Amino acid sequence: METKAAAPYCDDDLRACMEKIRANGTIDPALYEKFNVKRGLRNADGTGVLVGLTCIGNVHGYIISESEKVAVPGQLYYRGINVNDLVKGFQSEGRFGFEECAYLLLFGELPKAADLAKWQEQLEIHRRLPDGFKEEAIIHSPGRDIMNGIARAVLNAYRYDPKPDDLALTNQLRQCIEMIARFPVIAAYAYQAKAHYYLGASLLLRHPEPGRSTAENFLLLTRENGQYSRLEAELLDLCLVLHAEHGGGNNSAFTTHVVTSAFTDTFSAIAAATLSLKGPRHGGANLRVRQQMDEIKANVKHWDQEGEVADYLQRILQKKAGDGTGLIYGLGHAVYTLSDPRTETLRARARELARTKGREDELRLYEMVERIGPAIFNKGRAKPRDLCANVDFYSGFVYDMMGIPVDLFTPIFAVSRVVGWCAHRIEEIVNGGPIIRPAYKAVGAERAYVPLERRAG
Q1: Quick count: other Cβ atoms within 10 Å of Cβ 436?
Q2: H helical segments located in 332-408
């Protein structure tokens, strides 16, 4: 007797299964308040629940005064040094700063000239991928999403490592140094593979060149002609510095701590952080800003008329325009309240680039949305919120002016933030804490087991 082949669930089957999941798995929102559950690891006033200590980065956007959250101008510190002071130092000396920033975050101190030169040599040595790696791990397994491609390549790097599971600190540090050096190259090749196999572009792979900074090599590897201006390289370097670290509580750094606390290998921890960053609530936020601003430009006739822009922003908030979420992307931050220090620094350089690219009208539109957006958001609200433009508000615009494809917006973030991830991984291992295991309270009712033959229906 011929047996009929089984078929996978059809859409109707999946919808029926989904209804069962909703019926059996939806939790009454009132229970979160009843049991004092800190959803999203947030307190009732929006401040973060304190779950760890770190020496690496400090994100400062408010103070607690007499049990109340008080907004203050935002500050960001790398190993105790104000990031804007770092940037001013690099710029005043006319040099690229990302490599020095990486040294500071990883080792905890600013390098002397000899230390920096040796560190740059180490990065140059490790930028060259192992023999056969780019073919097997990247080119022969292209993907539509570059962040997924990067994560796959990072996991594949496990196979090329002589001691992948050795948790000795010296071995962990070696692996982290290699990750920091190789991430820009992996991201660039993953982009080239996608562009070739899915977009029909030529596949032209260059080797990173000695003597060039991380930003310069990334532009060299991702552009068909390999050309870039000094201003473009300086701006990309600035973006890498500003995105390198943001405290242990941001989603991808916390992911690094959680996964590392299980004593898994470096490659698994960094791949997990990469896929956390991929999310549109985290590293993909600047792409959402870019898409929303493109919509505003297409639907507002006069960009210089504040009333017209305000009307459209109101439509977005009312879910009559935009993607239906009612959010103005790029405004607001989990920690920063009055200002995001990274935004102020990036905006100033964006003005310089906008002048050279003839896009000053567009920049003024961005600045108008930044200026009027918070008041429009808070209009009629019983409890107004402090809102500022975050770094994602301008970074996508800067990348677009530089001709960087949208597919690379989030990978650039990863190229930078891998430094912070590696620093947090080493910190977690050095301090030897227990496995991270917060509690979840079970609220489902207990039920008796029913034998199969007695189940109704």
Answers
A1: 15
A2: 341-357, 360-378, 392-401
Instruction: Out of 39-53, 160-174, 305-319, pick the least confident.
Output: 39-53
* One-letter amino acid of 403: G
Average pLDDT, the chain: 94
Strands 81-82 and 68-78, bridge-based pairing? antiparallel
CA separation, residue 173 to residues 126, 153, 293, 323, 439 (Å):
13, 19, 41, 43, 32
CA distances from 35 to 31, 43, 213, 439 (A): 6, 13, 52, 12
b/e 328-360 (16+ beta carbons within 10 angstroms → b) = bbbbbbbbbbebbbbbbbbbebbeebbeeeebe
* Total residue count of the chain as it appears in this document: 457
Indicate the residue type of 183.
F
* pLDDT tens digits for range 212-234: 999 999 999 999 899 999 999 99
Q: Which CATH number does 285-401 carry?
A: 1.10.230.10
pLDDT band at 148 (very low <50, low <70, confident <90, very high): very high
Give mean pLDDT, residues 392-409: 94
Chain centroid, CA 192 distance in Å = 21
Domain ranges of the chain: 111-280+406-431, 285-401
Second-level CATH architecture of 111-280+406-431: Orthogonal Bundle (1.10)
- The pLDDT-based confidence of 118 (bands split at 50, 70, 90) is very high
Q: How many CB atoms lie within 10 A of CB 164?
A: 15
Q: Which of 96, 109, 100, 99 is nearest to 56 (CA)?
A: 109
Rounded Cα distance between 357 and 395, Å, is 16
Sequence-ordered alpha helix ranges (H) in 128-168: 133, 146-160
Pairwise CA distance, residues 308 & 297, whole Å: 11
Cα–Cα separations (whole angstroms), residue 345 to 75, 118, 384, 428? 12, 29, 26, 31
